[in-house]
Structures are given as C-alpha cells and as structure tokens.
C-alpha cells in the first residue's frame, strides 16, 4: 500500500468522533462506502450516544456524518445476511431513551437504516444535496427500525405509506414541504449550525409516540391496501399495513412489535431471496444489447439533463421522485405549443397518439430547434384480450416508417411501447434501434429516472402479447376444465391474480374441439400448476420467435410491469419451478386433453430431449 492508499484507508476508517463545546455536542460518524450501515457502525454510534448521555455540559447534540452522504443504508449484498435492518432499532431506542434532544444533519444519501435513525431524532436539518428514502421495500423487506411508526407520526399516514410502499426518494426541498425535515440548511449561506442547534437546546419532541391519525378512514384504506398485497402474495406490503394498523389501534409500542414480527418473517421468506435475485437481474435487462464499451454505468444526472414531453405518451410521474427534481422536465400539450421550445441536447418524448403525420411534424419542430435532440416516440400498449390472434399488438406504423423517420435530419429517434399493470411501468425499445448505443443509454437513463423497466427488442409489445397468448390457453381451461370460480382460486394459488381475465378473448374458438377425443382424461395436475405451465410455454414461444432476447427479460417485465410475485415467475427467479422434463410431459398431457394451445414450444422440446 502506498502513501496515498494508506491515507485514503485512514480517511474512510470506521469511527464516531465526539466533541462538546458551549453546550452543544457533535457526533460525527465516518464509515466506508458512503457511510454504509454495518453492525460495527451501530456499535460505534451507541458509544457516541452513551457519551452524550453522560455529558452534563451538553444540552443538545448534532448527529452528522463525514463525507458527502449521511448514510446509504445497509449494503444490498449484506442486507439480511451480515446486517439486519432491525439492528438499527438499538440506535433508535438509545436516542429515544435520552433526556436531551438530538438534531440530525442530513446530506447526500439518507437511505434505509440511515433515514430510520434520522426519524428517531428530535429534529432533522437537510442540506440541498440530501435525498431521503426507504428502499428496502423494493427488495422485499419492510422497514425494520421503526419507520412504520415514526414516519406516519411525522408526515401523516397517507404520505408515510406512499414513501414506504413506493421505495421512492425525496429531495431535500420536497422533504421539507412534507415536514419530513424541519429546516433546510446551506452550509455556504445559512447561519452557523451551532447557533441553529442552540435554538433547539432543551426542546425535546415526543419520540416513539402513538400515531395521532386514528380516523376510521385510514383503517379502511389500510385494509384495502392489505387485501391487494395479499392477492399478489406481497408479504412485505402486508407487514407494513399490519404494523401501521397496530400503531393506529394500539399505540406505537404495539406497532413497533408488529413491525419487528413482520420484518423477521419477510427476511426469512423465499420471496425475499427471489426479489434479491430479481433486483440483480434488473440492471442486465435494462442494458441488454448496449455495447459494453459505451455503457459506462453513469447516472441519469450526467447523461440526462432535460426532458421534454409532448402529449400524454406517459402519465405525470410523482413530482417527489428525486431524480426528476434533478432533471428539468417540460410538458407540451401538442405540437403547436412547441413555439416556445428552446433546449440544448434535450431528451424528447413524443406520443404516438398524434398519428404518423403528427409525430413527423413534432420531430421536425424539435429538430429545427435542437438538432442534437434524442427523441423517444412512445405508443401505449394495453392488454386487449379481444385482439385478433394473428396481429396481437403488432404496430405496422412503427415498423414501416422506421427507415424514413429514424434518421431524418440526423435526428436520433427511438421507437418504444409503454405498458404495465400500473402506470406504464415498462418501456420497451423496438428492434432496429441498436445503431447508436449512446442513444439507448439515454433511454435507459430516462427509464431509470422515471421508475420504469427498460426492455429491448421485438416488433410487438412483449408484455401484452405474452399475456394474451397465455390467456387464450386459460380460456380453453375455462370452457372445458374448470369453472370461473375454480380458475380464480387457482390464479391466486399460482400467484397470477394480477393477470386474471376480465373479458373473454376472441381467437381460436375455445369450443372447437371437433378434432379431439372429448373423452380424453385431463392430466392429474393441480390447476394452479397448469396455469404456471401455460405461462412458461407462452414465454418460451416468444423466445422461439425471437421476440424476446433472454428469459430474464420475460421475468423482469412480468414482475416489474404486472406485479407477478417473483416466486411465480416462469423462468429463472421462481422458487417453485418445474423441471424441464416434467414441464414438457405435463404440456404434452395438456395438449392431448385440451388441444394445440398447450403444444410445447420448440425450445422446451429441445431442452427436455437434452435433459432426458
């Protein structure tokens, strides 16, 4: 190790520095990797809090961090293994037990366990760089350090549930607007932080107090949310609802106990392990097909500085998302509104709803004002079970115009579909957009900034087409093998309730079994397993046709786009997968009983032959 490396190692060595002067104590913690929360850092923080408790000269303490970030929370790779979020409770409980106030000074990343510790403090001061959030929910865990009780008491039940269940981040200004932070502090402009602390000396707030909102309306809303989570087998969502409800009904202590029970149950569940795998795969799905030497992994802030939306190609995203507040976003209702448009190197989103002529006029208008624009033309694709099976979600307009439009005036144009169970949560780039990897990198950055999964390839909307193919097989079962109630129960058992049929699709007649022996005995397979087999087969057919590049892409869009639980996904993430030989045998039996809708895809036939 040379001198520079030794200096860097010393700089990031884990420690908590305690100092006291003029009645104000400061506890500054420093840890590697953006002050990642670890068991060792917890122990060090407990030592600092004990010093403050014993310091008779200090009437108020400032809890802050060294470096650019307050704390990025627990490491993704260590969460649930080397570090458990419920360990944060030790620090939060120690702060609760103090008779003197603590002020958290927040900067940079304030995520997960870092935010939970800040919530336990009496006051929160945020620098402009602060971004606050509880990302655990996105990987299958509820908060474990008391956030289900403290956050509703601070910002209200509705805002707290939104922040926890969405796993979104708030920038400092929005956190101030929602009362999550008490003061905005700019070190280069504001009064001295010590003077600010003296204003709050001796002013303790109620900590670990009962949630104040007890209106029955909140309990009804929580119950409705919980029912939805149960239908999707989202155990972490159920755990959050249970904990918040316990706090509303019985007080914070009961809520803390319910939160801990839920956290420990989710941490040991197979769903959590599957979601961790899903999160790891998401990045490869987002960047699949991008040239590795061009994709640098840079953040959306450096690649994407301004976004212009023309029409309603995408819905209005929540304004509180931190990434959007670091990107300049402008909206125009139509092409005529673009007269005032002036941007440098913008990312422009145009709705396909304007029609071919309208899209071309919009592109002309944008390029005439910003020749270096990157343009994303988006068509919304919904699941339409009554679509004709030979043209399901194929877009003739998108494929036919590409050669004349994509390079018009050297504009960088990408065609895409937007779809998903919730507000257009999947963005699929069309095949033929691979010529400029940098353009696709910007599309990925845009998707990431707006919370969308980006999938690449195909001339059809993969998600709606996949679900439509699967639903045709389900319709055969509905007509020949099970009652609607039995199928609905099987959907829930299979974890596929979010894909349930609302209308009967047209297409191959579900009553046309003239060529089959109607006395054929149905295979002895549970209906929920039949539904899973049909979904695997539908995905395998898309892989056969080259509509999808990789099985992970199918799993990703079903999970992130349609809320299919990870343990129910057809390919690599599921915890209850069929072996390929058994899958092939089951599909052959279903084919004999119910017809061609269950004929195994070619890739499954080949895989079964290799495995046999």
TrEMBL record:
Xref: InterPro entries: 6-PGluconate_DH-like_C_sf, 6PGD_dom2, ClpP/crotonase-like_dom_sf, Enoyl-CoA_hydra/iso
SUPFAM superfamilies linked to this entry: 6-phosphogluconate dehydrogenase C-terminal domain-like (SSF48179), ClpP/crotonase (SSF52096)
Keywords assigned: Isomerase, Lyase, Multifunctional enzyme
CDD domains: crotonase-like
Tagged with keyword Isomerase: yes
Coiled-coil stretches: none
Membrane-crossing residue ranges in chain numbering: none
Domain of life: Bacteria
UniProt GO BP: fatty acid beta-oxidation
One example GO MF annotation: isomerase activity
PANTHER family hit by this protein: 3-HYDROXYACYL-COA DEHYROGENASE, PEROXISOMAL BIFUNCTIONAL ENZYME
Protein name: Enoyl-CoA hydratase/isomerase family protein
Originating organism: Pararobbsia silviterrae
Native organism taxonomy: Bacteria, Pseudomonadati, Pseudomonadota, Betaproteobacteria, Burkholderiales
């Amino acid at each position: 190790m040379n001198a520079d490396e030794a200096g860097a190692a010393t700089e990031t060595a884990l420690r908590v520095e305690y100092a006291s002067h003029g009645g104000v104590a400061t506890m500054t913690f420093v840890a590697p990797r953006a002050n990642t929360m670890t068991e060792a850092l917890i122990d060090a923080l407990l030592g600092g809090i004990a010093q403050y408790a014993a310091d008779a000269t200090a009437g108020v303490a400032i809890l802050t961090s060294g470096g650019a970030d307050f704390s990025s929370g627990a490491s993704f790779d260590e969460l649930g293994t080397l570090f458990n979020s419920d360990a944060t409770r030790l620090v939060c409980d120690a702060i609760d037990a103090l008779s003197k106030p603590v002020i958290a000074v927040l900067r940079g990343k304030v995520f997960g366990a870092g935010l939970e510790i800040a919530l336990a403090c009496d006051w929160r001061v945020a620098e402009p760089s602060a971004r606050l959030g509880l990302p655990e929910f996105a990987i299958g865990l509820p908060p474990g350090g008391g956030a289900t009780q403290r956050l509703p008491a601070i910002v209200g039940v509705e805002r707290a549930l939104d922040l926890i269940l969405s796993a979104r981040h708030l920038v400092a200004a929005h956190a101030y607007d929602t009362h999550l932070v008490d003061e905005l502090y700019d070190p280069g402009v504001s009064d001295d932080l010590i003077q600010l602390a003296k204003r709050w000396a001796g002013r303790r707030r109620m900590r670990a107090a009962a949630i104040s909102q007890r209106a029955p309306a909140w309990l009804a809303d929580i119950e409705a949310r919980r029912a939805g989570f149960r239908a999707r087998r989202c155990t972490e969502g159920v755990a959050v609802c249970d904990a918040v409800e316990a706090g509303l009904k019985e007080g914070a202590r009961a809520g803390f106990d319910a939160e801990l029970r839920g956290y420990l149950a989710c941490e040991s569940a197979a769903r959590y392990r599957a979601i961790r795998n899903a999160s790891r795969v998401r990045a490869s799905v987002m960047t699949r097909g991008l040239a590795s030497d061009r994709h640098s992994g840079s953040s959306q802030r450096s690649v994407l500085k301004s976004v212009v939306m023309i029409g309603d190609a995408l819905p209005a995203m929540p304004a509180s998302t931190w990434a959007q507040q670091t990107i300049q976003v402008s909206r125009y209702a139509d092409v005529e509104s673009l007269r005032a448009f002036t941007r440098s190197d913008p990312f422009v989103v145009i709705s396909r709803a304007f029609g071919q002529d309208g899209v071309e006029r919009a592109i002309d208008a944008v390029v005439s004002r910003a020749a270096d624009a990157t343009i994303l033309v988006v068509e919304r694709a919904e699941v339409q079970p009554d679509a004709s099976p030979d043209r399901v979600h194929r877009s003739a307009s998108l494929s036919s115009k590409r050669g004349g439009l994509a390079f018009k005036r050297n504009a960088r144009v990408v065609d895409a579909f937007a779809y998903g169970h919730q507000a257009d949560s999947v963005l699929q780039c069309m095949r033929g957009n691979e010529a400029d990897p940098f353009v696709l990198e910007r599309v990925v950055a845009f998707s990431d900034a707006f919370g969308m999964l980006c999938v690449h390839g195909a001339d059809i909307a993969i998600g709606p087409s996949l679900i439509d193919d699967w639903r045709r097989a389900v319709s055969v079962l509905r007509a020949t093998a099970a009652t609607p109630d039995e199928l609905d129960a099987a959907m829930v058992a299979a974890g596929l309730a979010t894909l349930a049929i609302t209308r009967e699709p047209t297409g191959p007649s579900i009553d046309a079994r003239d060529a089959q022996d109607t006395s054929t005995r149905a295979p002895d397979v549970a209906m929920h397993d039949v539904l899973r087999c049909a979904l695997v087969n539908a995905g395998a057919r898309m892989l056969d046709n080259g509509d999808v590049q990789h099985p992970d892409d199918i799993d990703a869009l079903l999970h992130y786009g349609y809320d299919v639980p990870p343990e129910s996904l057809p390919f690599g993430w599921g915890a209850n997968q069929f072996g390929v030989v058994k899958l092939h045998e089951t599909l052959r039996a279903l084919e004999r009983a119910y017809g061609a809708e269950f004929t195994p895809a070619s890739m499954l036939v080949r895989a079964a032959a290799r495995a046999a």
